[in-house]
Write the C-alpha cells for this entry.
Amino acid sequence: MTPRGDTSGAVRAADAGPVLLRMQGLSKRFGGLQAISDVTLDLPAGMITTLVGPNGAGKTTLFNMITGHLVPTAGTVHLHGKPLARLAPWQIARRGVGRSFQDLRLFTHMSVLENVTTVIERGSWLWQRRADPERIQAVLNDAGLWDKRHERAADLAYAERKFLSLARIMAGDASLWLLDEPASGLDPRSFDRFVALLRNYAARGITICIIEHNLDLVTQLSDRVAFLDQGKLLACGDPAGILKDPQLAAIYFGERA
Amino acid sequence: MLAYLQNIAVLFCVNAMLAVTLNFIMGYAGIFSLAHAIFFGVGAYTAANIAMHFSDSLLLCVAGAVLVSGALSMVLALPALRVRGEYFVAASLGLQVIGVTVFSEWKSATGGLGGLVGIPPPTVFGHALATPGEFLGLAAGGLAAVLLITTALLRGSFGRSLMAIRDSESAAQAAGKWVAAVKTLSVAVSAGLAAVAGAIYAFYMSFVNVEGFMLETSILLMAMVIIGGTGTVFGPIIGAALLMLLPPALTYLPFLPPSELGTVQQIVYGSIMVLLMMFRPGGLVGGRRKRGKA
C-alpha cells in the first residue's frame, strides 16, 4: 500500500436521497488478502450508482457480500433498513436484490423463454407461482429477444446473451439491480440500446448499481460514482467530480505515485 | 417362448423405470448418483416385508416402498448434496457400498445374503396377481406411471428450476431458487419412484436378495441413461431396451461359444460406451442437442 492523502475513513455523497441499501464498515479477508476493508456506502433509492476502480479493487467481492454469496468478515448490509446478515443468497434475492454475473451464468441448455420464465416462478416446491405470459413477452420485447425466444441460450450471439442476462433481472421483481460489467464487449448499436434500456428501468424507480470499466457508460448513465482501489472506498460523488480528480485518474490508469 | 419373452419384457419395464428415475436427477438436476440400485433395493425389501408381515395389498406395499425410499433418500441427500459434481459421485459410491453391507447383514429385515423367500403375490382389490401376463401388465403400467409423473414434473416449473440449477447453481440462487430444497426434493422423487420398480421386481421374482442391488446394477443403470441420452424423455427407455436385449441377442449368434458369452458381452458394452461418447456424446436420442457452444 502506498500512503495516500484521501484514504482514511469513508466518503459519503452529500446529496443522497432515501437509502435503499446501506453498507457499513464492510470488510472481507481471504486468508492473507484484505479484499475489502471498511467500506461504508449507501445506494440511494432510484439512482444509478457506478462502482469504478482497477481490476482487483474488490468490486465484485462487494456484490457477492450484498447478495450473500460471500459472508463479510466484518460489517453489515441493510436493505430497506433491515439487516441481510445470515440470509442465504436465494432469500436475499427474494427480498428484491437481482444481480448479473460478469461471466453471465445463463441457463445455457434452456431456451430464452425458459430462462426468463424460471426466474418469475418462485416457490421452489412442486407448485409454484405462475409466470404471467404478457409480462414475459414485454420483457423479451424490451430486451429484443422475443423473436429468439425458442433458441437455446447457448446458441445466442454474444450481445444477445448479455441482453438475456439482463432480461432475467428485468423479469424478476427486484428493486435493486447489481450489474457486473453489463456493457463490456457490446458493439456501439447494442450499447446505445442497452443504455436506453437501463435509463428506462431507472426511470421506473429501480435502483441500479453497476460495475463498469467503460467510462462512456459511467458518464452517460451514472447519477453517482463510487471509486474503489485495493478494497478501499476512495471517493463517492457525482461523476464529473470523481472522473476529473487527477489523483483518482492516476490510480485508475495505473500511474501510481 | 412366450414365457421367455414375457420375462424379458417385465425385466425391461423394471429397468426402464429405474433408468427413467435415474435420468430424472442425472439429466435434469445434474446429480450423478452411483447409488440408484440402493433405492431400488430399499423399495424391494420394504414391499416384501409389508407383504410378508402386514398386508399383501399392492397399493399399500408400493406406497410403503415409495415413502420409505423417498424419506431415506432425503436423509442421505441432505448432507451429500452439499458437495457438487464429481464429489457427489464419490459420496454416492460410498452410500452404495454401505447399502450393500446393510442389505447383506441386517438379517431380520433383508434375510441376509440368503434374501427373502416366499413373497406372496400382491392383491389388487382382493384379486391376487399371479400369471406372467398380469405381471407384465403391472410392470408396463408402472413404467407408464413413472414416465408420466416424471415428464409432468419436468415440463412444469419444477423442471425449469431443476435445469436452472443444473446449468448454474449460483445464478439460480440469485434468481431466488432455494437450491438445497429443489435438489433434495428431486432426489426424493427419483428414489421414491425407483422404489416402485423395486416393489414390482420383488413381487415378480417372489424372492429378493442383495445380488440385484449391487454396484454393477447402479453402473448398468447409469450406462442405460448415458447410452440412451441423458436429459431426454425416451433416451433412458431406449438405453434400457438396448442393454436388456443385448445379452439374449448374443446367445443367438451361432459362432459364439456359450462359455465366452460373458466376456463378449462386457467387450460389447464397453465398446458401445466408448464409440458413443466419441461420436454421439448426447446418447442415441440426444446426440445433436449437446453440441454447440456450452
Chain B touches chain A at residues 153, 157-158, 160-161, 163-164, 166-168, 170-179, 181-182, 185, 231, 289, 292-294 (CB under 8 Å). Residues 2-211 of chain B form one domain. The two ends of chain B are 48 Å apart (CA to CA).
